[in-house]
Design a protein that fits this description.
Layout: E1 2-6, H1 10-21, E2 25-30, H2 33-42, E3 46-49, H3 55-60, E4 68-71, H4 76-90, E5 94-98, H5 102-105, E6 122-124, H6 126-139, E7 145-149, E8 154-160, H7 175-178, E9 184-191, E10 194-196, E11 209-215, H8 219-225, E12 235-239, H9 243-255, E13 260-265, H10 268-277, E14 282-285, H11 291-296, E15 304-307, H12 312-325, E16 329-333, H13 340-346, E17 350-352, H14 354-363, E18 371-377, E19 382-388, E20 409-416, E21 419-421, E22 434-440, H15 444-450
Helix pairs in contact: 1-14, 6-9, 6-14
């Protein structure tokens, strides 16, 4: 596939890295010589310096025979114009644009991005993606991550194993014997920075970050087994009243009018605007790193603090101050990916990486075969996805124990007619079953082949 990526920032660079590793033909455009130099020095892709919306540069990038353009520059207008030019002059089949300003995304202007006006096939809104990722983490207290699949019938949940976990030092194959009602599949273990796709002989150790896949109805039981059953938060403090913080507050209040939300915002004008727009929230104007402001917000009585400012250091430090004061749980927005892994060791319970959420949204539209949705996990080292099994798939028609899946691929769940099936050795996948698969990133092509239409299908 030939892909043009407009923008070489964190999101553009990581999409290019993913696609280049899968041997796609990738060209990256950015006006920054420094960012283009980084791309050239790090990735096996073509890189051009200039404005991504200029027709001559898009032509040099190969737009005439490109399959897709992904516009993720810092500027919404450049992204939109790049897609318009790609459509009008070069007839690029698929156009994806990142649009941050919520004014463009107001439902009353939904016709703006139609084929007759500004033909963009997929709009990615990082603020909305991040806010929804935070809300998912709130839904499952005790987890550092949660992703839904199959219309929320199936969930992939990430938990950190502490010393009080009842099943540490236990081989995975013994979990079913110890807990017959535990209908889950442990799909990955992150240990000392290394991703492990486990077998039945692997043990769970203190400090492991694990992902398990299960039916939504079994998640609470699994969290209890892993020693992470916690109460859902009712008193929440949000640090940052920007687009993300406001979206989270509005969504939480809409879901539960009795929830108590307090928002700390540094900018006076923005604080007043948030107070006006979200009257059911208490808005405090001040610095979240000021102990007096945190006392005024009564952080010691809060169950969760959510720090989503534009400054990673403010997010981390305000979360730590709140936890030190007695707040039960902290969720932070972390833009710098080098900060992410250290957050757990300093006491932050969960973090959201906006780059990873945006990359996941974009990759979903790039995967081949009958893949319906996916999420990039483990810092980009793995993906978990749902796909429809076709009649010609090698997965169909024989027991899973007889299928030699490549190392690095594990089936987490099978959904048939709305029923979630925990895959075992004797499970037989049927045509049109929805399969949730966890895979190392380097094995994604093998997964695509498992769910692609073959010639004999016709």
């Amino acid at each position: 596939m030939k892909v043009i990526i407009c923008g070489a920032g964190q999101v553009g660079f990581n999409i290019a890295r993913h696609l280049a590793s899968e041997q796609h033909d990738v060209t990256v455009i950015d006006r920054s010589p420094e960012l283009i130099a980084k791309v050239q020095n790090s990735l096996d892709v073509q890189a051009l310096i200039g404005y991504a919306s200029h027709p001559d540069l898009l032509e040099r990038a190969g737009a005439r025979d490109a399959d897709m353009i992904i516009a993720v520059t810092l500027f919404d207008e450049v992204n939109m114009v790049a897609c318009q030019v790609a459509h009008s002059l070069f007839d690029v089949p698929k156009k994806i644009a990142r649009v941050r300003a919520q004014n463009y995304l107001n439902p009353i202007w939904r016709d703006l991005f139609s084929r007759d006006h500004m033909p963009i096939d997929v709009i990615i809104s990082p603020e909305v993606e991040v806010a929804e990722a935070v809300i998912r983490r709130l839904e499952v207290p005790g987890a550092f991550d949660m992703v839904t699949f199959c219309d929320d019938l199936v969930r992939a949940v990430g938990v950190i194993l502490r010393e009080d976990c009842p099943v540490v030092n236990t081989p995975l194959r013994q979990l079913t014997e110890l807990f017959p009602d535990l209908n889950i599949v442990v799909t990955s273990i992150m240990r000392n920075g290394k991703l492990i796709i486990p077998s039945g002989d692997d043990q769970l150790l203190v400090g492991d970050n694990i992902y398990f896949v299960s039916a939504k109805s079994h998640v609470a039981r699994a969290l209890s087994v892993f020693g992470r059953d916690e109460e859902e938060a009712r008193r929440i403090i949000i640090v940052g009243g920007g687009n993300i913080g406001s979206f989270i507050a509005e969504k939480l209040i809409a879901n539960d009018p009795k929830i108590q939300i307090k928002i700390i915002e540094m900018d006076d004008e923005k604080a007043q605007a948030v107070a006006k727009d979200i009257p059911k929230a208490i808005v405090l104007h001040g610095d979240a790193l000021d102990v007096d402001i945190q006392k005024e917000a009564n952080v010691k009585a809060a169950e969760t603090i959510i720090a989503v400012t534009n400054d990673d250091k403010v997010n981390i430090l305000s979360s730590l101050l709140a936890k030190q004061a007695g707040c039960s749980r902290a969720i932070s927005l972390i833009n710098n990916n080098s900060f992410g892994p250290m957050t757990y060791s300093v006491g932050i319970d969960a973090f959201v990486d906006p780059r990873q959420t945006t990359v996941s949204s974009i990759l979903q539209h790039m995967r081949r075969g009958r893949i319906r949705s996916l999420q990039n996990l483990a810092g980009g080292a793995a993906e978990v996805l749902e796909a429809v099994a076709l009649e010609t798939s090698p997965l169909v028609g024989k027991p899973l124990r007889d299928i030699r899946l490549p190392a690095g691929i594990i089936i987490g769940s099978v959904v048939r007619d709305g029923e979630v099936i925990v895959p075992k050795g004797g499970t037989i996948i049927k045509p049109d079953d929805i399969v949730v698969v966890f895979t190392r990133l380097e094995m994604i092509k093998k997964v695509e082949e498992l769910f692609s239409v073959r010639l004999e299908y016709f």
